[in-house]
């Protein structure tokens, strides 16, 4: 017993003499999943795959190349905002956080984020380096509140084998519609010749799906969707025409019905329809299907931005950004944050391998980026992509409200006029509650 006591005492004495870690520490909080079992110790960014893998190895590499900085990483369940709000309320926010650009206004509007003009300048990053779409996503009330990390949006993912069967290919390029009437004509021709629906749509538990369609083609017509921070304008001739088009597609069986996102993805990869309008983030999985012999999409897959059915070329987009919650920080901590931002910006190409569009003009122009599968076909979205005005808060909740009404209109559960009027009322009631 005496020997055990002496051993414990000796261990405690030695522990008290251990050198203290005096490195500056910054806390990075991110979503994109947990993959430490695979990439926890890897610094080989080029060999990494998936959003989680690429970001994990990037931060590992930064840590290895900057041993004077200790980076603590908190991985949160998507999207992580309830946890972030609790941390801010407790006075202990992280230093650098991943945030959707459409969410920035929720925090910036309450004074909870730090303007990043100075930090970005210290990192050697100028706003002129951002693409138009990326810059619009992080500028709020005339200040920069984030370093944009990418641009994300919806695309038309296309099964070219079925399009050829329907007589809708010009060589190796799909023939896409240029008006609502052309879309309906092509959809009917596709159904008649293939026996399958022209569109595959995730219409169940996916309120953002119909909202993205509506926003995109309203933006194409320069429609004012949010005239001010308290009101939405949806019950308009332009919106009625867009929703009526999708109601017709649904009524005539020219699209899949009653599918959630997993079911719609399965339909597309199994070759059960022609076009699946979904996100940039699905390019990687679908391209893998297209390069796997024996799979329905093998050598039969391309992507395109949404076609111009009304007005001008447009795409409703969002993006991810790195933001800094407001807090007291030492000059050393601020320098460490700036160094990490500089590192991430310098390695943004690696992130674009996930399928997202770059936020930096230099990366967009890289031959390496253009050589990635399908990227040259969608690069225009970095210029045509648009978001809602910077004063619009609660955008995710608004999507949910509008999406419910659009689903009711498209499926025939409600008249279009009534659904749009109800969407306006519900959104205005929500916006009226914002302090």
From TrEMBL:
InterPro entries: Bact_solute-bd_prot1, SBP. It holds the Pfam family SBP_bac_1. PANTHER family: ARABINOSE-BINDING PROTEIN-RELATED, DIACETYLCHITOBIOSE BINDING PROTEIN DASA. One of its GO terms (cellular component) is periplasmic space. Gene3D superfamilies: Periplasmic binding protein-like II. It comes from the Bacteria. This is Extracellular solute-binding protein. PROSITE patterns: PROKAR_LIPOPROTEIN. It is found in: Periplasm. Belongs to the bacterial solute-binding protein 1 family.
């Amino acid at each position: 017993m005496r020997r055990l006591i002496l051993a414990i005492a000796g261990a405690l004495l030695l522990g008290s003499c251990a050198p203290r870690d005096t490195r500056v520490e910054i806390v990075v909080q991110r979503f994109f999943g947990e993959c430490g079992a695979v990439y926890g110790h890897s610094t080989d960014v080029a060999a990494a795959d998936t959003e989680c893998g690429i970001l994990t190895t990037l931060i590992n590499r930064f840590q290895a190349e900057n041993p004077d900085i200790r980076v603590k990483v908190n991985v949160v369940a998507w999207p992580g905002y309830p946890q972030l709000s609790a941390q801010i309320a407790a006075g202990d926010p992280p230093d650098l956080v991943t945030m959707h650009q459409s969410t920035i206004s929720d925090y910036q509007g309450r004074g909870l984020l730090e303007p990043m003009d100075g930090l970005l300048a210290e990192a050697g990053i100028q706003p002129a380096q951002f693409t138009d779409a990326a810059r619009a996503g992080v500028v709020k009330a005339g200040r920069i509140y984030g370093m944009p990390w990418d641009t994300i949006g919806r695309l038309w993912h296309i099964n070219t084998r079925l399009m050829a069967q329907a007589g809708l290919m010009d060589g190796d390029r799909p023939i896409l519609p240029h008006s609502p009437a052309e879309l309906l004509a092509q959809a009917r021709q596709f159904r008649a010749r293939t026996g399958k629906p022209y569109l595959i749509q995730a219409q169940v538990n996916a309120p953002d799906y119909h909202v993205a369609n509506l926003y995109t083609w309203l933006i194409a017509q320069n429609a004012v969707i949010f005239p001010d921070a308290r009101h939405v304008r949806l019950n308009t001739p332009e919106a009625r025409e867009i929703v009526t088009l999708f109601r017709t597609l649904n009524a005539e069986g020219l699209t899949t019905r009653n599918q959630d996102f997993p079911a719609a993805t399965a339909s597309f990869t199994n070759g059960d329809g022609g076009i699946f309008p979904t996100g940039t983030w699905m390019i990687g999985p679908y391209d893998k299907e297209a390069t796997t012999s024996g799979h329905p999409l093998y050598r039969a897959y391309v992507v395109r931005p949404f076609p111009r059915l009304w007005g001008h070329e447009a795409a409703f987009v969002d993006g991810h950004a790195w933001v800094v919650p407001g807090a007291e920080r030492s000059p050393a901590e601020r320098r460490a944050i700036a160094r990490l931002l500089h590192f991430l910006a310098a390695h943004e190409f690696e992130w674009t391998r996930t399928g997202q569009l770059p936020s930096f003009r230099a990366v967009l122009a890289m031959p390496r980026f253009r050589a990635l599968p399908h990227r040259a076909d969608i690069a225009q979205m970095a210029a045509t992509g648009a978001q809602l005005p910077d004063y619009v808060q609660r955008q995710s909740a608004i999507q949910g409200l509008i999406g419910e009404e659009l689903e009711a209109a498209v499926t025939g559960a409600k008249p279009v006029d009534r659904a749009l009027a109800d969407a306006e009322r519900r959104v205005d009631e929500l916006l009226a509650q914002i302090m």
